[in-house]
Write a structure and sequence with these properties.
DUF2059 domain-containing protein, about 200 residues, mainly alpha
Length: about 200
């Protein structure tokens, strides 16, 4: 064999090996591709699908029902802050404080209105779920069991919040005592002593 034919023979052998290796890789990769294809090509839900799901699950009603709780929590925080500071506002201060709280609530209601939140919710649903998932959820929430779940959800949430508050109340009271003790003892003095 001449050097040129020897080189040509080696090149052909190399090409055969590469082709064989390529075929082996393709045989391994094809099943993997087929397994992952549904996930890669899964369609996000349409606006109409998400809107139907949000309608069935009463997302707007849930958002609207939060406002009395938010206002009560805001009032509770203010009262705790005033009590913690040892300050009892007079009528003029109370009127100013109430006006401030009302402005804050109006701002919050504007920022979190359904008109503002609906596109946000829709986008989150579309990023989170596939069309097939949303169809399955719609089918469930259209069922009698799904509607019962939705009807009972406010009660379930209330019961859960009450149970959670009872569970953490002792810990919160202990934290408040620790904060009062640290404040009375002078937090800065303790930090200096710890160094």
């Amino acid at each position: 064999m001449t050097p040129t034919s020897l080189q040509r023979n080696r090149t052909m052998t190399l090409h055969k090996r590469l082709r064989t290796a390529g075929n082996a890789i393709a045989r391994l990769a094809l099943p993997l591709l087929l397994l992952t294809a549904p996930a890669v090509f899964a369609a996000p839900p349409s606006d109409a699908q998400v809107d139907r799901l949000m309608e069935l699950t009463r997302v707007r009603d849930t958002l609207e029902s939060m406002w009395p709780q938010i206002e009560a929590m805001q009032q509770q925080v203010v009262e705790q802050t005033l009590a913690g500071a040892g300050h009892k506002p007079d009528k003029a201060e109370r009127a100013q404080l109430d006006a401030l709280l009302e402005r804050q609530m109006q701002t919050l209601r504007s920022v979190m209105s359904w008109e503002q939140m609906e596109p946000v919710y829709r986008d989150i649903y579309q990023q989170t779920f596939e069309a097939e998932d949303v169809d399955a959820m719609i089918a469930f929430y259209e069922s009698e069991a799904g509607q019962k779940l939705i009807a009972k959800m406010p009660q379930l949430m209330r019961n859960t919040m009450e149970a959670t508050q009872r569970l953490i109340a002792p810990a919160i009271e202990e934290m408040q005592r620790d904060i009062r003790s640290a404040t009375k003892a002078g937090i800065g003095d303790k930090d200096a002593a710890a160094d």
